[in-house]
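Supplementary Methods S3. Input chains for the assembly prediction are listed below.
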Amino acid sequence: MRIAFTSTGKSWDSIIDSRFGRTEYIVIFDEETKTLELVDNSAVKNEAHGAGTATAQKMYEVKPDVLITGNGPGETAATALKNLNMKIYVDAHNLTLEQAYESYRNGALKEI
Amino acid sequence: MKEIVVLSGKGGTGKTSITASLAVLAGSEAVVADCDVDAANMHLLMQPDFAVASQFYSGELAEINQNICTQCGLCSNVCRFDAIPFQNNKYTVNPLACEGCGYCQKVCPTEAISMKKRKSGYVYISNTKVNSTMVHARLDIGAENSGKLVAKVKSKAKELAEHQNKYFVIVDGSPGIGCPVVSSLSGASYVVLVTEPTVSGLHDLERIYSVIKRFRIKAGCIINKHDINPQKTEEIIEFLNRENIVHLVSIPYDIAFTEAMTQAKTIVETSSRISQKLIDAWNKIKEEAAKN
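Predicted structure tokens for the full assembly:
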């Protein structure tokens, strides 16, 4: 399984970015190869509007099996993500990616 | 750090007056962010010193290189915003009408049109009259607020709060339910809703709460001017109970609000009976925000 995180930084100890659309980075953890992959999303800062749909578009390129994030995507981004076969887990605020992954494994995160 | 966002949905409910009161009560405990940038007015009450200013760019603006332009008029024809009039024997872009869509650039046969970044205003970092830091912005004429600007103001405020070891960021949120509001909300710890007992007050409260609920952020509500329509106030309280929103306080209508405003003061800086209500509300907000 490939697990994506919205992240404020580039590493396993970075804190989850609560925002979906304007997340700084998308970090993907591959459970099989135990490797991290990084998608820089900081260009979204330049989007005056439509950050949610721009990041949703990115998710279609990345195609993870699971997304772990904070507030979760807003209405429009959530609609755009419907056709992507990806589970979304939320409320991982203030956790490091590692802690968020543990919480997900223990079933402590809420799926939407 | 707790980020407290104040929202109302409807204008005129007293959101900014109340946010400024909370900011005065919090004093140097909080960094303040004014994200109601379209008609920013919190500075009138907080009296910031505009210490640090930086230019803010958002969106694009078409520019015609007159040396290459053959005056074919294609750009003017395709522009949906009538932003390229023919004046003084040349086509020029009206910056107030240009939406930056780039259609003109696409059709120009001589590549005379380029899209430039548009300066849309300034972002300020200030010291306020209560010795706190405030991040705010001023838009140029015709410029609009955006999720981008709100995100910038908020991230600067959070960065400063972390740097100064402050426990609270108090955000005066944007109006409506659109892009700037979503940007105001994301990452928030607690939302304070300010409403009034009118038909549109309740309608817009329900509407804004549907957005907050989507992001699963806890909220409390201040009913301002509660005595102008006791029946609507009852309806609002029913709604709050149904949605598990904490009823923080009800504030009666009082001319003292306006009197304070005309002296560039918040109500908590006067001897009005309302002061205590806002002190109670702030204590309750701190308590609620600490829970998550």
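Strands of chain A lie at 2-7, 25-30, 35-40, 66-68, 87-90, 110-111. Chain A has one domain: 2-111.
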